[in-house]
Amino acid sequence: MRQLNSTSDMTRYYITRNRGYIARYFQVHGDYNPVLFGVGTALTFAKEIIRLILVDRAHFSSGLSRLIKGWKDARLIYKDATWRPQPPLEEDSEPTVCVGFFVASMLNKSERRRANCGAFVKGDECLLTKNRIIF
């Protein structure tokens, strides 16, 4: 069995919130099965509850509130019919990993180096946020 490590309340929020983005992505591409996706979401939520009980007991109330907030935000994303995934990169471009979902202009240089979530850039422009990246 895999070991459960402690995590932050912010991470708990994003774990549950990002399920909304995944659901919309699957819907846009025609791969969405509401029953199976619901089971996966319930299992993810249950895993986080178990992590709170077994590993992060001191943060149970704050962790649970962040899970619920993430779930509510995921529902809003899930219901947003205007959401579209990022368009594919041009074939001749060679993407590199960017600082990610953070607003790059609001981070100082050391924070930009530590942040890494896998968004793609072309040159020094982050295609996900359209913010300029300064290294």
SSE topology sketch:
Elements: H1 9-28, H2 34-54, H3 60-79, E1 96-97, H4 109-114, E2 120-122, E3 125-126
Antiparallel strand pairs: 1-2, 2-3
Global morphology = elongated
Strand composition percent:
5-15%
Give the oligomeric state of the chains in this entry, treating copies of one chain as homo and distinct chains as hetero.
single chain
Number of helices: 4
Q: Helical amount among residues, as a percent range?
A: 40-55%
Q: Taking all residues together, what is the mean pLDDT?
A: 75
Main sheet overview: 3 strands, antiparallel
Low-confidence stretches: 99-135
How many strands appear in the DSSP assignment? 3
Query: Order of strands across the biggest sheet?
Result: 1-2-3
Q: N-to-C terminal Cα separation, in Å?
A: 41 Å
Q: Give the SSE string.
A: HHHEHEE
Which class best fits the helix and strand makeup? Answer: mainly alpha
Calculate Rg over CA atoms.
Answer: 17 Å
Question: Which key phrases capture this entry?
Answer:
135 residues; mainly alpha; 3-stranded antiparallel sheet; elongated
What can you tell me about this protein's structure?
There is one protein chain. The chain has 135 residues and is mainly alpha-helical. 50% of the residues lie in helices and 5% in strands. It has helices spanning 9-28, 34-54, 60-79, 109-114; strands at residues 96-97, 120-122, 125-126. Strands 1-2-3 form a 3-stranded antiparallel sheet, with no helix packed on it. Strand 2 (120-122) and strand 3 form a beta hairpin. Helix 1 runs parallel beside helix 3 (60-79). The longest helix is centred in the first third of the chain and has 21 residues, at 34-54. The radius of gyration is 17 Å and the shape is elongated. The N and C termini lie far apart (41 Å).
